[in-house]
Amino acid sequence: MKFKRTLLTASLVLACGLSSAVTLRVANQGDVQSMDPHSLNESLQLSFDNSIYESLVGRGKDMSVVPLLATKWRQTSPTVWRFDLRKGVKFHDGTPFTADDVIFSFKRATDAGSDMKGYVAPIKELRKIDDHTVDIETVTPFPILPDTLTVFAIMSKKWCEDNKAEKPVDRRKGIENTASFKANGTGPFRLKERQPSVRTVLVRNFNYWDKVESNVDEVVFTPIGSDATRVAALLSGEIDVMEPVPLQDIERIKASAGTTVLQGPELRTIFLGMDQKRDELLFSSVKGKNPFKDKRVRQAFYQAIDVETIKSRVMRGAATPTALMVGPGVNGFQADMNKRLPYDVEAAKKLMADAGYASGFEVTMNCPNDRYVNDAAICQAVAANLARIGVKINLQAETKNTYFPKILRRDTSFYLLGWTPSTTDAHDALYNLMATPTDKGQGQYNLGTYSNPKLDELTAKIQVETDKTKRNEMIREAFKVHLDDVGHIPLHQQALAWAYGKNVTLTQLPSNYMFFKWMSVKGK
Amino acid sequence: MLVFVLRRLAQAVIVMLAVAFIAFMLFQYVGDPVNNILGQDATPEQRAQLRADLGLDKPFPVQFARFVGNAVQGRFGLSLRQGRMVSSLIAERLPATLELAFSAALIALALGVPMGVYAALRRGTFLSQTLMTLSLVGVSLPIFLIGILLILVFAVTLKWLPSFGRGEVTMLGSWSTGFLTVDGWRHLILPSITLAVFQLALITRLVRSEMLEVLRADYIKFARARGLPNRTVYFGHALKNTLVPVMTITGLQLGGLIAFAIITETVFQWPGMGLLFIQAVTFADIPVMAAYLCLIALIFVVINLAVDMLYFVVDPRLRAEKSTAGH
User: pTM of the predicted model, to two decimals?
Assistant: First the structure.
């Protein structure tokens, strides 16, 4: 009997030992396009590659900048930053991490095939001081360098050279690259298996330099494009975590016994823009003048839009109405200024009458239908709202593949756009969305050419101001200028939604990055 | 015979060129991949540069000529979305689609022929009425609905079968197969049934009507008059003649199964060529779309050619006349 019990215990221990590998099964609507962290500037790809590759500095759970491969950094002059690199870190193949890898990765990220060029553009050069110290010199004073570096992954010089992957794949040259389907980083997970569009398997890196709070040994990532199938796979327990969650399925997933949904505000702000440059709108019934040049018309549009109903009906609650062009979580967000002008149809009608458009007018609105959450439905709601002040909207909703080329040519009078500042700093939104367009790239997405010299001046100053208090003061001022002008009509920050089994614990970031190192699976 | 084959081959080339031409015309409307590739942070110069490097700024005839020139040499370039060779992407996906299509065809034939025969022989019975009604439902229900219903019942509610993917696959050289593992078979069941439903219904109805026709023919009456047992009459004479048109239709439908597996593959996240194509469309990944459309055209052309040649072999009358048996 005793022997039997010992045997039983032994076999139980053995069984537990065998089944103790904890697997986390993750599904997303799309696949990670490449394992190469410099090849594509897209959030899903950057988020996934972040578990394998690391940058000098990273993000904490509150989106703050935290040390990763660099332990400390300080400015030695307005344009020079010194970074102390972490010692004793090894790549997955065992090669030690040194300053040479940082300098190599910088060169790689500036190559023609790289999609990270925008992030490293402010950097003039990197200098190796010793094996674990580098100096980074920027072209002009650049206060948000650490924020920018969070998306710049460090690769192993030796591994890239051994695998002929010194450069990111250049689609124009037609040559494949090993780094697209193999990986060798310093991160908490190693790439074990890669089948594009089928599954990608990561395993824990037990030589990781830091303690990891996750209990996950293996991550299986599967793309499932069809919304219904992705939801079904979660409900049937074939996957543990999935995103995005179709809005109409949120209640159903919450109601199911074993699953739940976590929603949070995303950094992306959805807004409307109006052509304020041309003397006559391209697509409107008003001839010989441009009604959007009149602030009263812009404000009438603003106040005629019932953003709360859009939130409750179109977005099923999954949105946060906003008055600002950046959301909470973006550096420079001003909570006290985030008050929308009231929804007031009568006031809007009066403004229209004062501006000389008492009977309204006709204008074409451009809208994507596959880019943001319920984008085309938002535009339909806006069109219905504006009909009440006599504005007839001809809605043109189309796929992003035709929408973006069109609006980037500025062939539009009235449009909907969403924007996430890629540096998570307000300057990005000011520079790209609100400043007057120049041929240098400023105002590239200011598609209606809203223009105020005061804002331009502030934007230029904010870019190089290194004093945080002064900088924040200038951001406030710039936002105020834009609000007073009704330069754009901000609508809301859409919510992001992750659905997962109740046995999973995780941390959701407003950037929608999914860090496997903060995820655990219980009861398996 | 040789002249016939050569003539068909020449026609095939024209068909392929026409398909490529129409496909390329369509690409003018699917939009611009440059913005998808470069993302929001690229400068206008970078966009213009990439557009020029990819040849997208050239007029349509120039782009088309370049594509045909490369395609003839078997070069379809790199996928704009994945940065990998289009040919290797398709080679990876082809086994999944073919295994799915053949499984579906097999289900449709193995069930459809007996069901059709039964419905013809036992006309008017309750079971055959039911079969006919069901086949009508099968022909009219959209594929995605069948797929989602199957997932809901067998994956979510009963939890018997997996809802997505191919499961565990084994590599035989460069061919990935799901036939060698239990997991692979389990994953195959729902998608292949979904894809088979329409064909199954079609074959059932086709076999029934052909069989009824044949049963009215003189030689069946003579066979009966000779006192042959029912079994010999039905399965020896009638069924054989029934199956000739069924084979033709099935051959052509096989091309359709491969081409129209798109919806089934999307619903079940089946990693085949259809899914690849859909993903390419959402990104305006022109090289992948062009290669896919040409490959599908090629499959149709080859199957058509094979069917025509089978006709030629089977039907002696064609050999006497100058026929071009077009479909």
Answer: 0.83
